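Quick sanity check, Cation diffusion facilitator family transporter:
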Amino acid sequence: MFSPPLKTRYGLLSLVVSVILVGIKFYAYLLTRSQAVLTDALESIINVVTSGFALYSIYLASLPKDENHPYGHGKIEYLSIGFEGALILSAGVFIFRSAVTALMHPHTVERPDWGMGLLAFTAVVNLVVGFVLVRAGRRHNSVALVGDGQHLYLDSVSTLVSCLALLLVVFTNNPVYDAGAALFLGVFIVVNGYRMLRRSVSGLMDESDVSTVQQVIGELQAHRQPAWIDVHNLRVLRYGADLHVDCHVTMPYYFTLEETHNQVHRIEEFVREHFEVVEVEMFVHADPCTYAACSHCHMPECPVRQHPFAQEIPWTLANTVKNERHLLVSEEVGSS
């Protein structure tokens, strides 16, 4: 299990690295007076602010449920991504405007060799740290860590573009390449900031994660039991590192309350064992079967069967998320 203190250490790593690298980049700008390097340094300031906010959001997400937050505090991580995306978007717009001015009035770039060396170093560090954060975040379902790591990837790409611009300036002695690189970075940063903001809104609005829903359906289908006649109205939501699942399961109407409870418990255990998250909260609503379900129910030695078993209806994304019981095609035609 991924303990909250370990997540905090990853967040602290990102913050410390961001502070050091932004200092190096501004030193590179003082040496070169390059518009592209300044653009990269300004974008890195966002790294420091967002890494600090991500660290705080990781701390909040690790807090247990309370009376005011019955589903926990995990959604703060989506707010962290939104805050990061909004800052990146704002910085991109400012950088774009500055780059246009620099393109219209280019100036000489000084000591580009030193600038390339310093920027190359920061790019390598950002790539390594970003890889570590994204890998840890995906493995342990922390969207804040993933977002922070992806931002470092973005920063490393910006840095490499700045290095390329300085290299072109060295070989051509034309400062236009410097301003052109800054203009490109401005557009690139705006696009990626929008994407992060869009992902944040999706999480805060409980937009369904199709891949996670398909995993839950696949787990239920793989461990399908005869007593689980039908699964429908399936909903899967993520709250940070926690997973919330609820669904309706049709079971034989003659089951006792204890038998129904045992079947529900088995469903919950199968799903919990499949997902490596901090907590899986699952609510299963049991529906009694009707005689219309006999044709796709293969409950052995059913004492109340009215129709012979015809075929099993596979559970898919298309039919399990609907709030209606499954019927064979022949039954749908007959009931219309």
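Posting the structure with no commentary besides this: The chain has two domains: 4-204, 210-335.
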